[in-house]
């Protein structure tokens, strides 16, 4: 793999950019791999990357039914933060956030991580108490956040209306080192690094069946033929229940649509990320100048990557009150993704009833921010059978009553 | 836009009039059940790619609960029916079969047991 650098740009400039090579290979699947990862989104690719980097396991295939990063990895609002209330969540999201800080250097691929700060507005008395509690919890967890008063909110976000009729801004939970990154680049960067380690990334290859023999996965049937494996990782987000069904076990999971939209590009007006959980809306400005807006999930099961119009209407109606300038913006695009939501709104990173099959799903509306931490922990779980980061996220927690209850704090805009 | 006909008041209600109530035909387990039954009842949801049965409430209308048969991959509605039943009436099953031959869902619970 040729490394990207300022020197490489200069060199290519002198020869009409004829020397750039493909970022990753597109091989046909081999008959057998040590590890098969199903799902070439951020989580799947990150898992493969850390299997190679941290554990030297490189005979790996990452199988994808569509194209690389074409699911929720390419459909989110790119927010990265780790200001969670519960210890297990804070641990894995903070791990992820810290890995994002060095990801561009680590992968030799610019993921445009921008630690611009994330602000979660308190717009009711309950939220004030909730966020102050989170700030204290974060202090104990070693996650740097603070409670800020309305005057400071206005200083950071001049376009905000503090005294809206329905949703006054009463303060905010502020995480200065949180921010955004380029979502596609995260998938592309991991794919390039995986391919460089000799892993096969096989796109347009749909898994149609999972061969389970004597309680172990022997391999998968795909649209490109049968592939055998020693271990299998399922990282397919919204389709997790469907894939688990093929392997013969069930998940405590429902798949619903989550939508986002972007405006026309405008001049820089807001250099932080603002989330307003009371009104189910969050907004940031992309590097291109578009206002990126995310909303809440639909209520009913759905696999179509289309959501209900009235959810968008609700989100925008609320944002217009908090940010009056939004009322003058034209919206350019709107899209949906299928998110997998568990009973306690926290993910599953777990062994399964099938011996050598591991699952990582249920990130719901908070998958992008966790990609590197999730991959790091999943790789450790798959390679060694144990990871301190994943212990609490086991499938068995529902049976044991050990929920990681983030839904109270963040059932939406999570 | 999702439109469901309320089987009680006959109104063709659009989504903002309705409240979703999750998976239909759950068999409830309480005292006396074992851990697995209680766990499955509380957390293991049907999440099919295709034919699904759900509870809905005509919240901004007559206020009554009812059932709907829907497809989660096309958002097509096969029909709605009364809440006072342990499984879809034959007429609804026939409508589903007409459009999705060979469909399956989990076993319907028998309310008597």
Average pLDDT reading of chain B:
93
- What share of residues are in beta strands of chain B? 25-35%
- Helicity range of the residues of chain B? 10-25%
CATH topology of the largest domain in chain A: FAD/NAD(P)-binding domain
CATH architecture of chain B: 2-Layer Sandwich
Strand tally of chain B: 6
Radius of gyration of chain B, CA atoms, in whole angstroms: 15 Å
* Most extensive interface between two protein chains, with residue counts: A-B, 23 and 24 residues
Q: Would you list the SSEs of chain B in sequence order as H and E?
A: EEEHEEEH
Low-pLDDT residue spans of chain B: none
Main sheet summary of chain B: 4 strands, antiparallel
Short structural description:
The complex is a heterodimer of chains A (414) and B (113). With 414 residues, chain A is of the alpha/beta class.
How would you summarize the topology of this molecule?
The complex is a heterodimer of chains A (414) and B (113).
Chain A: H1 6-14, E1 32-38, H2 42-55, E2 60-63, E3 79-80, H3 87-101, H4 103-107, E4 118-122, H5 125-141, E5 146-148, H6 150-156, E6 171-175, E7 179-180, H7 183-196, E8 200-202, E9 207-213, E10 216-222, E11 225-234, H8 240-247, E12 253-265, E13 273-276, E14 281-285, E15 290-301, H9 309-322, E16 331-342, E17 348-351, E18 357-361, H10 371-384, H11 397-400, H12 407-410
Parallel strand pairs in A: 1-2, 1-11, 2-8, 4-13, 11-18
Antiparallel strand pairs in A: 3-7, 4-6, 5-6, 9-10, 10-11, 12-15, 12-16, 13-14, 14-15, 17-18
Helix pairs in contact in A: 2-7, 2-10, 3-10
Chain B: E1 3-5, E2 12-14, E3 19-23, H1 35-43, E4 51-57, E5 65-71, E6 77-81, H2 90-99
Antiparallel strand pairs in B: 1-2, 3-4, 4-5, 5-6
């Amino acid at each position: 793999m040729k490394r990207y650098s300022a020197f490489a740009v200069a060199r290519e400039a002198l020869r009409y950019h004829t020397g750039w090579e493909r970022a990753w290979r597109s091989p046909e699947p081999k008959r057998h791999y040590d590890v098969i990862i199903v799902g070439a989104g951020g989580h799947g690719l990150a898992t493969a990357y850390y299997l190679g980097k941290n554990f030297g396991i490189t005979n790996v295939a990452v199988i994808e039914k569509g194209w690389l990063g074409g699911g929720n990895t390419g459909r989110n609002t790119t927010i990265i933060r780790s200001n969670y209330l519960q210890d297990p969540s804070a641990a894995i999201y903070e791990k992820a956030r810290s890995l994002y800080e060095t990801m561009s250097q680590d992968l030799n691929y610019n993921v445009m991580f921008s630690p611009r700060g994330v602000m979660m507005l308190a717009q009711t008395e309950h939220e004030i108490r909730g966020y102050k509690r989170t700030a204290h919890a974060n202090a104990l967890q070693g996650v740097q956040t603070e409670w800020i008063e309305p005057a400071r909110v206005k200083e950071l976000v001049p376009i905000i209306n503090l005294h809206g009729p329905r949703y006054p801004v009463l303060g905010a939970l502020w995480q200065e080192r949180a921010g955004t990154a380029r979502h596609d680049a995260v998938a592309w960067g991991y794919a390039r690094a995986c391919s460089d380690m000799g892993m096969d990334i096989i796109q347009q290859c749909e898994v149609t069946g999972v061969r389970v023999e004597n309680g172990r996965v022997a391999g998968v049937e795909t649209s490109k033929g049968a592939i055998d494996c020693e271990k299998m990782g399922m990282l397919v987000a919204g389709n997790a229940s469907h894939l688990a069904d093929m392997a013969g076990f069930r998940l405590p999971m429902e798949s619903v649509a989550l939508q986002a939209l972007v405006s026309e590009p405008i001049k820089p007006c807001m250099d932080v990320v603002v989330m307003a959980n009371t009104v189910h809306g969050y907004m940031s400005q992309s590097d291109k100048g578009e206002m990126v807006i995310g909303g809440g999930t639909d209520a009913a099961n759905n696999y179509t990557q289309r959501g209900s119009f009235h959810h968008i209407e609700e989100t925008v109606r609320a944002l217009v009150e908090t940010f009056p300038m939004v009322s003058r913006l034209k919206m350019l695009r709107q899209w949906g993704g299928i998110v997998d939501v568990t009973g306690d709104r926290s993910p599953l990173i777990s062994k399964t009833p099938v011996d050598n099959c591991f699952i990582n799903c249920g990130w719901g509306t908070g998958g992008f921010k966790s990609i590197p931490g999730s991959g790091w922990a999943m790789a450790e779980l798959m390679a060694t059978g144990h990871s301190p980061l994943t212990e609490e996220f086991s499938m068995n927690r529902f049976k044991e009553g050990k929920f990681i209850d983030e839904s109270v704090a963040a059932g939406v805009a999570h | 836009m999702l439109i469901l006909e309320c089987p009680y008041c006959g109104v063709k209600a659009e989504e903002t009039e309705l409240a979703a109530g999750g998976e239909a035909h759950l068999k409830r387990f309480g005292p006396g059940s074992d851990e697995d039954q209680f766990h499955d009842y509380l957390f293991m949801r049907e999440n099919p790619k295709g034919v699904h049965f759900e509870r809905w409430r005509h919240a901004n209308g007559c206020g009554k609960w009812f059932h709907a048969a829907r497809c989660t991959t096309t958002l097509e509605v096969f029909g709605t029916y009364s809440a006072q039943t342990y499984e879809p009436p034959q007429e609804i099953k026939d409508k589903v079969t007409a459009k999705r031959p060979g469909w399956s869902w989990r076993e319907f619970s028998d309310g008597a047991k």
